[in-house]
Amino acid sequence: MAEPGKLKVAVNESESVTALLYPAAKRDRAGLTIVLGHGAGADQMSAFMRMAAEGLAARGLDAMTFNFLYKEQGRSAPDPKARLESCYRAVIDAALKHKKLKDNKLVIGGKSMGGRIASQVAAAEGDRVTGLVFLGYPLHPPGRPDKLRDEHLKEIKRPMLFVQGSRDAFGTEDEIRAIIKKHRLRATLYPIEKGDHSFKVPKSLKPQPQVYEEVMDEVARWCGSI
């Protein structure tokens, strides 16, 4: 696969971030852009983010990743909520205005924190997106099931796909299923048997690359159904 195209996205008058566009092959294009934000501890160049973007582009989706401001600026601690959300909104603007993507449907989401910020943006202003994909939704901090991050989810009117490991310390498959039922969310759950927060499974269960391929197949299938 060719190297992704690089974009500079202005977040405010003085700050910008780098986004990467992994275009689908012309013959395979599904007419849908998926924007994925990274998790709190990694940037868009992590192996997981590259795997997801390349895998979805290979399945006909135009995939875009980006760095949040703190990672773009070389810092390790995530920015406050408002800065994270404003950065995500700027990337949404860029995706909607991009000359090669402007006629596409738009799905947003991401890995862990990236998906959570996407959900917060969609809860406040979801009219611009067609759906959301969460690759390991951080429902609560590890060991703190009392600190749920779910109240805003009921404000989202678009369909959602939760890809969740059954033993995810940030929210198990069963916990996500309970939240979907509690809030009557317009959501689909794709559980990963014995998967952790990054979908890693015991070697005795199945090869790890197969797990990731199955996840990308499901995300692409779901995106094609909305």
Element layout with pairings:
Layout: E1 5-10, E2 16-22, E3 32-37, H1 47-58, E4 62-66, H2 69-72, H3 81-97, E5 105-111, H4 113-125, E6 131-135, E7 160-165, H5 173-183, E8 187-192, H6 208-225
Parallel strand pairs: 3-4, 3-5, 5-6, 6-7, 7-8
Antiparallel strand pairs: 1-2, 2-4
Short characterization:
The chain is an alpha/beta fold and 226 residues long. The chain has helices at residues 47-58, 69-72, 81-97, 113-125, 173-183, 208-225, and strands at 5-10, 16-22, 32-37, 62-66, 105-111, 131-135, 160-165, 187-192.
Describe it.
The protein has 226 residues and is α/β, with parallel strands linked by helices. The protein has a single domain (5-225), classed as 3-Layer(aba) Sandwich (Rossmann fold). 33% of the residues lie in helices and 21% in strands. It contains six helices and eight strands, in the order βββαβααβαββαβα. The chain has an eight-stranded mixed beta sheet with strand order 1-2-4-3-5-6-7-8, sandwiched between helices. β5 (105-111), α4 (113-125) and β6 (131-135) form a beta-alpha-beta unit. The longest helix has 18 residues, at 208-225. The protein is globular and about 40 Å long. The protein starts with a strand and ends with a helix. 40% of the residues are buried.
The general outline is globular
Topology order in helix (H) and strand (E) letters: EEEHEHHEHEEHEH
CATH superfamily: Alpha/Beta hydrolase fold, catalytic domain
CATH class: Alpha Beta
Kindly report how far apart the N and C termini lie: 27 Å
Question: How many structural domains are formed by the residues?
Answer: 1
User: How much of the sequence is in beta strands?
Assistant: 15-25%
Q: Based on helices, strands and strand pairing, what is the structural class?
A: alpha/beta
Mean pLDDT: 96
CATH topology: Rossmann fold
